[in-house]
Amino acid sequence: MRIVVAILSASIVLGLTWIYQQTLAENQLPTVEAEPVEIRDTYRLRVVATFDAGIDPFAEDVSSAAALKVSLLGQSVVAIDQPIPAGQPVDTSVELDLRQGINEFLIEMTPANTSDLVPKAIHVELYRGSDLQPLESQTIWAEAAETKLVGRVPFQVNVAAASAEETE
Prior knowledge:
Elements: H1 2-22, H2 24-27, E1 38-49, E2 68-72, E3 75-80, E4 90-99, E5 101-109, E6 120-128, E7 136-142, E8 149-157, H3 159-167
Antiparallel strand pairs: 1-4, 1-6, 2-3, 2-5, 5-8, 6-7
């Protein structure tokens, strides 16, 4: 009798699981857009370092080495191949195709004097168009022994807000 109850119980559990997967589980899947919506707009990027930046002497290809390199989705957005003094803001205006949601910059900056044993920082601000309020403001820190500062700066892009500003 126990074996019959065990088989019956297992059959009921498996049957209910199958019914759940066929009906309820399929209705709870999140809806995903087929293609991400892209926004093309002009942004202003400001980068300020607490150290003198210079060309990376250990780069694989010294001819394409840069003191400051900013990338978005694997594509180079800004590359400055000349020394940048400490505290001097680097302002660049770039036209970008951004996806709705979270995007992020990859910032790479090389100190001119790697023997300085002081902590280093880069302050990054992203402005939309001619806005005075930054869309994102973040500081990237590095230990004193670091020979290159590398950090990511994520920021949110909202399609509804972008289209509302374009119609005004």
